[in-house]
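Can't attach files on this board, so I'm pasting raw text. These are the components:
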Amino acid sequence: MSGLQTEGRVDTGRILTVESLSTTFATERGPVRAVDDVSLTLDRGQSLGIVGESGSGKTVLSRSIMGLLPSTARREGSIRFGDQELLGPGAPDMSRLWGREMSMVFQNPMVSLNPVMRIGEQIAEPLRIHLGMSRRDARSTAIRLLRDVRIPEPERRINQYPHELSGGMRQRVMISIALACGPSLLFADEPTTALDVTVQAQILDLIAEQRAERNMSVILVTHDLGVVAGHTDVIAVMYGGRLVETAPTATLFADMRMPYTEALLASIPRLDQPSHTRLTTIPGRPPELIDPPPGCPFAPRCAYARDRCREERPPLSPTQDPTHSYACWFPVGSPEYLETREQLAAGLTIGGRP
Amino acid sequence: MTDTIEKRLGTLFWVAVGWLAVISLLAIFAPLLPIKDPDAYYLVKGVRPPYSPSGTHWFGTDQDARDMFARTIYGARVSLVIGFVAIAFGMLVGGTAGIIAGYLRGRTDKLISFIFIVFLSFPSLVLAILITALLDRGLVTIALTLGVLAVAPVGRLARASTLSFAEREFVTAARAIGAGDRRIIIRELLPNVVVPMGALALLGMAVAIVAEGGLAFLGLSVEKGPTWGKLILFGAGSRELEKSPWIAFGPIIILFITVLALNYAGDRIRSYFDVKEIGL
Amino acid sequence: MNYWVQRLTASVMLLLAVSMLTFGAMNLLGDPLFNILGPAAADTKPESLEKVAAAKELYHLDRPLPERYVRWLGDMVTGDFGVQFGSTGQPPVSNLIAERFPRSLTLIVMAQLLASMIAIPWALITAARANRPADRVSTINSFLLIAMPNFALAVILKYIFGIKLGWFPLTFKATDPWLTRIYQTFLPALTIALPAAAVYQRLLRTDLITTLQEDFILMARSKGVSRRRVLLRHALRPSLFSFITVFGINTGALIGGSLIVESIFRIPGLGSAIVEAILREDFPIVLAIVMIITTAFVLVNVVVDIVYTLIDPRVKR
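---
Top answer:
Structure tokens for the assembled complex are below.
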């Protein structure tokens, strides 16, 4: 589609390798570790879903990988995009990669699009900056892009302002801007949260379609397991800034190990439940990131937590399947887990008390 | 308690207040101070004035060999009085009108607001010139003229302040207990409105002092005695600036620091109480 | 539509009130007869008395105040500003105005232009480096500039640029060519522009900093747009609204507010005209110029409102 040789371009194989990435913010109350020792990999054309509640660090993670952080943030670790190391000395000027090899679709299109700039101009901008297109070429490319994302009457829309479009259309415009220069990696940060349910599926399908056409990698960040279920190859679950479980999608749903993942799944409302079924929520709130207590970050809210969980932090370790790792002392299916399960069912807590 | 207030207002604030206190005291007690006579001619035989700053004449002398330092201090007397009277008048009349308008609303409010707007739309300097040129140029006239001009801006702020406070719970609570209008205004609203007005008073004084200076430059300030504006005017001619800039610059510096202190203090009070508001 | 009708009515009432105030002040506080005829007004010699009677009739001075006011108002609305009292031959006031107005206008236009040229880059730089040393120094400078009285600033600038550096002339001739006059207007324009620029810059900087926190700025960066381009192309436009409003209102205020600067630098504009006229108690001039100034002020405010609705695409027409 865009047969251009550009620096950093990766056509096949491993596109992203993240090793022990940590992001710390300097705040008035002390340093906040929003991302703690996260490692992951991504191949060209693959789709990764990063799932977690708000406050889990998932948005910070995606922005850390891309490098879109304020100056109060410090990153440690390694991020390799293609064969380029993005952290440390020798790191490239990210403005050359942004919009061109990697781009981001943001959550709320109403505030993410410039309200006083016409749609056409906003799409044309990366085309003119990165690809050096003339005004005329950029304009016709923009029209084509709008057509690709299924916006009717693109010639008219080009001259409109964001507030003249509906929410779903604005998000499509955002996607078209992100795709303009044919990036190899697309970040989608809660792309559907601000939209109607009916529109959500359309947007996700659109992203999937573009991904297939362009052989593009996608990192989809969301709090909704339902969103990633049908649209990702691999899922990474985050909690308290850490990766707590990662597996290929099918494996995760079939054989989840971390109780948190199980709780997340249980909290999704289901169509086949009778109406007025009480929704299962996870009690408690996301952890304080300023002075994290030792042990597993989920322990305070975990129904299956034991003393060891509160004292020692469980490492991310693989199962028999090397693509599936989790961090839990007493994962789903382990004897301790089953024991607690019975006690809960009988109305007792750990330790045999009611 | 004083300690925390100090920290929030800042040391610079107290420096400004200190300056204002010093200059006011100097002005009030000028006749008692061991400074030279502002009207006397300190001619030195054989040397033509003006004399540049030296140990005897800290600010030098003007073209008639009058001591500039003394004249500046005496100038402070007039300028500060004008500023003070003007803003006091403005706050008394304007503040009252504003609070009444803000509290009573309705037709009273519309009428008072209209009067404010008329005065605000009128080029204020023109009005000041008009009145001073047509009446006399005594101290009282000028001070009151500037006071009249201060009524509208002060009143507008008082009204806005009252409007925002009148909606608050403590006023409704007072009314629920059966407190009458007058009581509410005095006990509940006034203490709260006084604060932003206090800040405005300082800022307003600065404006009034500067306005007097402006009038002086048009030849319309008080007839007798030195004021800061007049002093600067006498030193601002091309020849004076070239040969003896201290004549103008001595008063300019004192004037500037005073106005700066007033502005800064007023600003700090305003932001301090704004912050407290948000904390509520 | 309703809103504009209300605005119009309010503006007209305002102008009427101002005119009444001025007319009243001049007639009650001064003595028109004295100004027209000079000392002869108090004379009791028969020829003088004749002149007095003639003047009274010509200027309707024997009629009650309200009637004189209405007459004047009628004349003014049809463009007849009357004649200058104090001048010999009593030429029409409109001559004077036509002569003086362009000079004032030049001054104001130049001042506002200079102010914007200073304020906008200043704001951009300080917003980009918010809270860092350069910004803090700039804030102090702003504050100092705003606190400085305009006549003091005029004297300082005159000293620095006129005398020490000698860049600008200190005396002007009325017959100077047009270009020289622009040059002469520079220093007075700067006197007005510097404090105005400080105010504009403060406003613009605050709005820029707010805008830079918005999501669409981050989005623009994520497209690979350089910091500089983001500042100029994305952040500036949405941040201009407060600045434009104040700019507009200030233009209106400057029309009446450049008096002192005009007097100090001896620019023959409307400001100095009105000062001279007041000192001479030349009513028609004073009345006419006051009305012009106030009308301009009110008009400019209305125009600012209209422009506001036009440039912000989010505001409904």
